[in-house]
Amino acid sequence: MATLRRFLVNRASFLVGLLLLVLGALTIAGLGQATRDSAVDDALPAGTDSTRAAQVRDTLPQEEGSTAIALFTRDDDGELDDAQVDALREAVAGLDVDRVEVPDGPQALVAAEDGTAAISVLPVRATDATGTAAAVGELRDALDAAVPDGVEAQVTGPAGIQADLAAVFDGADVRLLATTAGVVAILLVITYRSPVLWLVPLSVVGIADQTAAVLATRALKELGVPWDESTTGILSVLVFGAGTNYALLLISRYRDELRSHEDRYEAMRLALRRTAEAVFASATTVVVGVLCLALSLVPTTRGLGIACAVGIVVAVVFVLGALPGLLVACGRWVFWPKVPHVGTASLAEGHSLWRRVGDAVARRTALFAVGTVVVLAVLASGLGAARLGLPTVEQFLQTPEAISAGERLAESFPAGSSDPATVVTRDPGAARSALDGLEGVQSVAPGGEGDGWTELSVVLADAPDSEAAEATVERMREALAGQPSTYVGGATAEAVDLADASARDRLVIFPLVLLLVLGALLLLLRAVVAPVLLVLTVLATYAAALGVGWWVFSGLLGFSGIDQGMPLLAFLFLVALGVDYNIFLVTRTREEARLHGPREGMLRALAATGGVITSAGVLLAAVFAVLGVLPLVVLAQLGVVICIGVLLDTLLVRTVLVPSLALLLGDRFWWPRRVGPDHAAQRADDVVASGSRS
Question: For the chain, which residues make up each domain, given as ranges?
């Protein structure tokens, strides 16, 4: 390690950092992100009934695509007269839109019994989201031009919803990257109070972010693991957040070492040696945690885990590989106007805000410990009322046309008409007999056929995303249970199966992540009590963040539920990233305790790391909150919960709870290891020897 530090920090190390940035830029420009080969089951849980139905439907020659439903209503919400119905029938018949089929006969246009609306079911022959979005866009333009005056045309149905979902991500990568970089730049300027310094870490992390996107998508392509539009967005936020945190920790330690070392190269080598252990431990914890997503039943969730693991590795390589050389080459002036000079008191020796907080905690340790636990318990109480499951109508921050049209359609037609359930079977006669007259089933009609399979389109009496519709799907499956090669699919069935798969993923991945994080802490600290307590504090933070999040979503924002997949992702990132700050604190505590004892060591560590960890936490919280710029509710919910959790962890748990527990337990906090002053002389010798080797 000493050889590596000398390689990264020397008179020519600027070239090492510059070379790494150039390699990253060449990777971005030369390779570019891999293109996705989407499949119908990418976002569906493996092995479920609805997934098999989607796979079979995809093989039917008549079903190479989706279905759009054109809804026609009067502008004044009145009844359509005969002349308008005839004009609409002619308009539909005259449609000439690429990849959109126009049905023949009287079923080309169906008027509602109440006369207030009419619909036309139009198959869309596109095999991917991009093609579907383009076809639906052309269809909407054609309908707007063809409908008579006084009539409004809207497009809904599965194809319309898919198109509007794709529109969410139009320009999303650029918008998200620009917003994230802007937020990071502002917070770095505030943190460093320097007009120059922030440019160095931002440049390094920015290139790392885009390099990670390229390498992650290329790796997923080679592994044959699917990903979706949100994968690169979450990856970008994670790399920016974690990478900037690592940079903050390194720069803070470097500035502190400059207060006691005239030679800036020696100062950086010491800073790198003392920072690398915490960064490597933190990064390892995050990588191990996100890789647990590879056990998910949902293919795109597995892809997200692999992509995030690649992103963290890239962030560590760039921050520890490029940043030291670039900073040292700039000289002390890069910190202007607050240039650190030799002889200035170090952070651990000063009387900063965080030292005063530590002293307050030390005076009333038990009170602070109990008080913090009570606060977290109160915040977590919101979990008792939380409801999992987000209806389709609430999945967008701004309601798109397909959703509003679907709601209007349900006022004049059976509620399930906008998105019928499907049954694929090799015995359509027996399947129809089982479904006819079943409670909640409005109608059953034959659909596509091929290779011995037949699709049945089943209109439900209730809205597709309602609990009543889900109950009907369960009754359908019970009625068809005795029939081989018969599967129930469609949006409602997929929602039921996704809820079951999400519950299974939480049951499997939650405890595994906790065990792996605990194992990493045991190896890092070579203690038992401290790792267990740190994991428990992170769990408490997660519960409190989710509880507060539910109050925000249900009370402030008016959502009826939490997306099924959000708690798992929030748990993963909060546990993995929350442990980061504890690692930064306790590794510095262990270092200080070797010379000053556990009690004073904790207070000195809090004083030394309080500012940088708070800055890192605020920055990470703000970066994840940036997910709210995307109008998809699941990402906004994820960003809000992580933002709340990181702030709680940074400002309350790491600042008050962990120090109070360590102060209460004293030497027992580190059991069975001893880090107290009994070994001070030996530790001091070790420090001197290590410094000379560096």
Answer: 1-31+171-248+267-330, 63-168, 353-385+527-670, 401-496
